[in-house]
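Incident log, structure service

09:12 report received: a user says their structure output differs between two submissions of the same chain.
09:20 pulled the input from the user's history:
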Amino acid sequence: MNFSYDKLKKYLRTLGDVASEGESEVLGDKVPLLVSACYSACRARIFGSERLVLLCQHERGLSPEQVQLHAALISAHYSLPLLFVFQHGTREFCAALIVANIPFVIVGRQIFVPGAAMAITEAKFNKGTPAPIRRFTPLGQVILLYHLQRREHGDQLSFQQLLSDLKIHKVYVSRSARDLEHAGLAQIMSTGRHRQLVFPYDRRKTWEMAQPFLISPVKRSIRLEQLPPGLPLAGPSALAALTNLNDDPVTTYAGYALALAPGAARQYSGSRVELWRYNPTLLCEQSGVVDKLSLFLSLKDNQDPRIQSELAAMMEALPW
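09:34 re-ran on a clean worker, output below:
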């Protein structure tokens, strides 16, 4: 094949995939000339699947709407999954194709192939390379869990909605959103002054992909005889409220940034209070109980088989 396909193969090799040699495909026999003239095409095995690779030859580039139209026209004549390959692409161009669920590669920079590979980061459009994300910040984790448990927002979450619902400063929203983007879970999309996070995967897959970056919200636990008002149930007590688990004799609550009087903490008496890395009330779905995903993260390493059994049942019942 031509130089563009060779560049694609080299790029895929850096991602751990060895693409097969391309077998030329003539599009002109099956699709309109105005469409076929935009691409050179080949059949190739990429990421374990046979695909129709469409290498864009359009000098001035194409709009996302044109690519979507071309994808529909070409798919009508081919049963193979499509893979569009471009030399250049803006942040907005990539985001639009992600929303449309169109697999694409921008050679050397970006790749989006659902179920196989994704390397979409805002930093690729800017100078410098971000440090690898090892763990989300507490607010980054809150934003992700908020998206996963608020289905009414669909696959897009505006910064304004986050500012309104989570009551956090826009600077921290931007930083946390970049963490999600660098982890490959979301794309920041801007339209004028309006910014939003676009999540290309369904919620269950996003949750599964996020596991290496998530941590238990619990920093440590203390015992208190006098509780501050408004603390939600947490730990085994929250799981007991949501499942068939019998509650522990000592009730567990979650708190954040508590102002405790000297000597208030007890060693053996009072209720158990988990001190969280973020405010648990930001994500509470059910009055008086912490959210289910934070609850899972706080209990997933608990060795009690009863807790693990009920935790698994709770997660299985989630309406992803």
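09:41 both user submissions now match this output. Likely a transient worker issue. Closing.
09:42 reviewer note: The first strand starts at residue 23 and ends at 25. The chain has eleven helices and 14 strands.
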